Write the structure tokens for this entry.
Amino acid sequence: MKTFSPREASRRRAWVAPLTVTVAVLAAAAFNLVRRPPPAPLPPLEVEWVPTQPVQGHLFLVRVHIPPASGILSAAGEAGGETLHFHAAGSSFESLAPVPIGATDTIDAWVEAAYADGRTETDSLRIPVLAGAYEHERLTVSPRFGSPPNAEDQARMQRDREKAAQVSRDAHATPRLWSPHVVMPRDSRVTSQFGTGREFNGRISSRHMGLDLAGAVGDTVLAAADGVVALVDSFLLAGNIVYLNHGGGLISGYFHLSEQLVEEGDTVGAGTPIGRVGATGRVTGPHLHWVVRYGSTTVAPRSLLTLAGVRAAGRQGAGQYR
Ligand SMILES: [Zn+2]
């Protein structure tokens, strides 16, 4: 039988005791593993978008499927640089999303689902986009508009941009107010398409970031969707404007009005008269310039009608937009 000197016995006790504790902890952990298995790994998120190839400069839908008993409580995310706002729609969470008109090939997005047990799962997406069929036109405009704006005009335009940007921020902070019932603000001819590239006096290049609808001074302009009146103002280029906040990031704007029929804070429904066609601001004649934005991303207004599944009342009809 081997005996230990007192010094050796002491050294032995020094590591035997911790070892015993370690074994006990491991045994307890193993017992716990058997008794309470950790939650199963989360299945991959089922994310789809509609249409399958969103178009440059158009709105599209992002859907996060909620499988039965999956425990998915909510979804969040971002696409094309804008925050998504999901709401329950059947067996999915659904959000509008924009493809910036300058996007080429793909846009980046991510989606996060929150589960009832407190866990979250994030999925990164690279969404392929289809090039939009945008035209290019040369315009000759009066020297006042063709030459660079003076300091006073520049300051005014900056102020106008800041006010519009505030409406966009407010829309991201407002719960969804719009419903799928969306209407054309005027039942009239399209006089200038959204997205057309413009060359002023052969030098300045820009895009027409709204849809022009024909009208005579005084003709009625309708709210395109449910929302609240966010801004009633007079802008240098856009003239008399009304901006509507539809919540969930969505806004619409109505430019060059001769008269505004609503006040800030008013609640409007799709089809509520909000103003009258005019020729205020930078225009050559009366018409309505209609703007739709998701956050600060301006999109083809009629892509909203297409997604809402509503036929445009205008002669062009829904689904033929560019
Ligand atoms: Zn226009």
Observations:
- The chain has three domains: 1-38, 47-128, 136-308.
- The helical segments are 6-35, 143-146, 151-172, 301-308.
